[in-house]
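Reviewers of the previous submission asked for a worked example of the structure-prediction workflow described in the proposal, so we include one complete record here. The input consisted solely of the amino acid sequence. No template or homolog information was supplied to the procedure at any stage.
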Amino acid sequence: MKHLDRRDFLKTTSLALAGTALAAHKLPFDMGAYPTTNLGLQLWSVRDAMGIDAASTIVALGQMGYRKVEGFGYKEGKMFNVPIADYAKMLKDNGMSTPSCHHPVTSGDWDGKILSDSLKKALDDMASIGQSYVINPWMGDDERGRIAKMVEAFNAVGEYCRKAGMKFGYHNHDFEYTKRGPDGRLLIEWLLHETDPKLVTMEMDMYWVAFAKHNPIDWLKLYPGRWELCHVKDMADTDKRESIEVGDGTIDFSSIFKLSATAGMKYYIIELEHYRTTSMEGAKKSRAGFINIR
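From that input alone, the workflow returned the following structure tokens.
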């Protein structure tokens, strides 16, 4: 589809309108049995508990029924101050695995020819524990202003990940759907058009797409097969529109998940950034909310 056609599409859909009636593709499974085996939790949701006692927190999450987690905070061979191999064993001992992890890629990690040694070490460590995805969670203001360099860097990271048996991905916030690059395209368009689909996938954070007053359905339809992971994060019906436990907000996940097959979704990652009780209670309630979506 030509660039002009995409513009026409965006103008004639509800992308520019406020609203959180989200949607997605047909699930590759029975709608009456959501894929709890492909359901995970972004550990940022329980960062307070992980910081106090990672081992006990993992045990508790396993007892809730979680079988997958998405990590964050890798530093110098460790996750949550635990050597990464021990972290992987901790998960395995509790019947869990980590298919993905958030790890930042900055403009300093790519000089146009080679990746930084620190980034390569992080990627190698993540591959060593059997991860399938490494997800870039954020672009700072400096990176946003250098979007052409960043998509080049992301392709390079994607190639490195491919050789290591993984895939690189990008997780959005709201700014990708509101800020534009030097040619007028939205940053999300730069990411989707200029990265190689064979090397770079997307982790759609549905909450942030809705927060930017776009409709995820339009993006899932316009770029089929590009969204292998998603963040299942609900939105409160308040002036602040903060995140809330899955099932208690305004996002129509049932319609979203009907688009899963076309979108290419493989993993559903719950994330919660605000809590009405505690982070652990929020994680438990959100899992139950996900299972009850119909």
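The CA atoms of residues 99 and 131 lie 5 Å apart. We consider this example representative of the routine output the project will generate in years two and three.
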